[in-house]
Write a structure and sequence with these properties.
about 375 residues, alpha/beta, five-stranded mixed β-sheet, two-stranded antiparallel sheet, 18 helices, 7 strands, about 60% helix, globular
């Protein structure tokens, strides 16, 4: 978690020379930018918001220099990755806004009390647990991070007694993380990722802020520290036990069926999913013996070659024959709804491709090349 280190080095007096502080923060920022796509978003939103709230424009300059450093160190790869990320976010935004993805219902209050009379009691309880602990940002915050809730309450009380100027720089970082969490909890910003993930990037600073409000070395507050530690430990144990057995019902059933069907094939295939997430490439790589067609994981040289064959997150099915000839793609897994919307006239050559039906999953189509080897 390099992002908290950026703020600790920048705002705390660690005895560093100004140039050393600047270079360390730039290096940390560039590392974040080149390491994680979500880290790019967290760094961008939190740093720029903190810079605005504190009027610390030098911090914004650090962000710009970190971008330039990432571009130089990666030899331009960062810019190409950023373009892919923006393309993905653009598609994700449109899909969520149109209600095409299950994530569009995230944070729906109706899910907190959803009960299907046709389902068994245990199934309904499992669904409720998953909805409360994984599909609602507010309940997840209340249940998983009570320390963060305490800090926010303390900061609100501090504001009520004084002004915004009474909040120190690290507390403003926590406030910024919370503001972004709130913003990304709304439907039309869900495409920016799970809101609570932004809070993890300020979690360390939240704990430090907590100790500023309550002196846990004081016997008067020891019970609170013990309670928080025991609660966190208990939650972690319950989460390990529960989420190792519970699955998000109704969202991964088709994936499991596809993995099972692929594992029944005797020859090794190169799998193409349309769109890519209908069967995530990582599941093909980890849970089967097959290969996957996924340009994002390819080398930069191969990415350039593959560029004409995709409009992320959709590969170009109209070039399925060329994909087979050039890259050995001999297994197609297709979401029927997306195909109907984007390529309603497309059909594979029946003489070359065999249709595989998936029981209980009519929304998914699977085609295998009849001749596995060329």
């Amino acid at each position: 978690m390099f992002l908290p280190l950026v703020f600790l080095v920048w705002f705390l007096d660690l005895g560093l020379l100004p140039i050393a502080k600047l270079l360390i923060c730039i290096a940390l920022g560039a590392t974040i930018l080149m390491s994680s796509k979500f880290g790019v978003q967290a760094l961008t939103f939190i740093v720029l918001l903190v810079s605005s709230l504190t009027a610390d424009w030098a911090l914004a300059l650090v962000f710009i220099l970190a971008i330039l450093t990432a571009l130089i160190v990666s030899r331009g790869a960062f810019l190409r990755n950023l373009k892919e990320q923006i393309d993905h976010l653009n598609w994700y935004f449109r899909s969520v806004a149109q209600g095409k993805l299950f994530v569009a219902n995230r944070n729906s209050l109706n899910l907190l009390w959803a009960w299907n009379k046709k389902e068994r009691l245990t199934s309904n309880l499992q669904n409720l647990i998953f909805n409360w602990f994984a599909k609602n940002s507010l309940t997840l915050l209340l249940l998983k991070a009570p320390a963060f809730v305490l800090v926010i309450i303390a900061l609100i009380a501090q504001l009520a007694e004084g002004s915004f100027s009474t909040i120190n720089s690290l507390e403003i970082v926590v406030v910024s993380g919370f503001a972004i969490y709130l913003a990304t909890s709304f439907k039309y910003l869900l495409f920016l990722g799970e809101a609570e993930r932004y809070l993890t990037h300020v979690a360390i600073l939240t704990c430090l802020t907590l100790t500023q409000f309550w002196d846990f070395s004081d016997p008067q507050y020891e019970w609170l520290m013990v309670l928080l530690i025991l609660y966190g430990l208990g939650y972690w144990i319950v989460e390990l036990i529960t989420f190792s057995t519970l699955q998000p019902f109704g969202t991964q059933d088709h994936e499991n069926a596809l993995v099972t069907r692929l594992n029944r094939l005797t020859s090794v295939r190169t799998v193409l999913s349309y769109p890519y997430h209908v069967l995530p490439p990582y599941r093909v790589m980890v849970e089967t013996k097959h290969r996957t067609f996924f340009p994002i994981l390819a080398s930069m040289e191969l990415k350039k070659e593959l560029e004409p064959f995709e409009d992320y997150p959709f590969p170009d099915l109209s070039k399925s024959e060329e994909l087979y000839e050039r890259f050995g793609v001999d297994c197609l897994i297709i979401a029927k709804e997306d195909l109907t919307e984007r390529l309603p006239q497309w059909k594979p050559n029946a003489n070359e491709w065999e249709t595989i039906s998936l029981e209980n999953h009519p929304q998914i189509m699977m085609f295998l090349r009849k001749i596995a080897s060329r």
